[in-house]
Design goal:
alpha+beta, Arc Repressor Mutant, subunit A, 7 strands
Length: about 150
């Protein structure tokens, strides 16, 4: 997967997050956080490809900072730092580890905001078919909904 051709943008926004690429600042509903150049590149890619599982080696290639040599394991460190930064902003966005060596940015509801529905079998079947149809347009929807 080639992640480099994504056009340069000054600001990237998804759900409740805004990333100012030039200033390297991510803003959420409660606060903001300053990011390193590598963290900014990584978060920009994850935001632009929200809901998509991206291989760690592809993220490593796209996020190399030319001044300092990096290893593929440095992506894990950057992801850890980004998770901490996203939590500090009060965002509902979370970075999930998908299988081995893939990461995905999702916008998940906090546990206290989740709702449990009791459906009749016919209602359940109708809801699941709607979700199946929606997942064609938005891959990863089932994971986002926790199904």
């Amino acid at each position: 997967m080639n992640l480099l051709p994504i056009e340069e943008t000054a600001t990237v926004a998804t759900a409740d997050l805004t990333l100012n690429v030039a200033d390297r600042i991510v803003t959420g509903p409660r606060d903001w956080a300053k990011l390193s150049p590598a963290e900014t590149k990584l978060l920009r890619i994850l935001m632009l490809r929200s809901g998509e599982a991206i291989r760690k080696d592809a993220l490593h290639e796209a996020c190399k900072v030319r001044i300092h040599p990096t290893s593929p394991e440095s992506v894990d460190v950057q992801i850890c730092n980004l998770r901490r930064a996203l939590r500090s902003t009060g965002s509902i966005a979370v970075i999930r580890s998908i299988r081995i060596g893939r990461y995905m940015l999702l916008h998940a509801l906090p546990p206290e905001a989740r709702v449990t529905l009791r459906l009749l079998p016919r209602q359940h079947a109708a809801l699941m078919s709607l979700i199946d149809a929606a997942e064609v347009a938005r891959p990863g929807l089932r994971a986002e909904l926790g199904l």
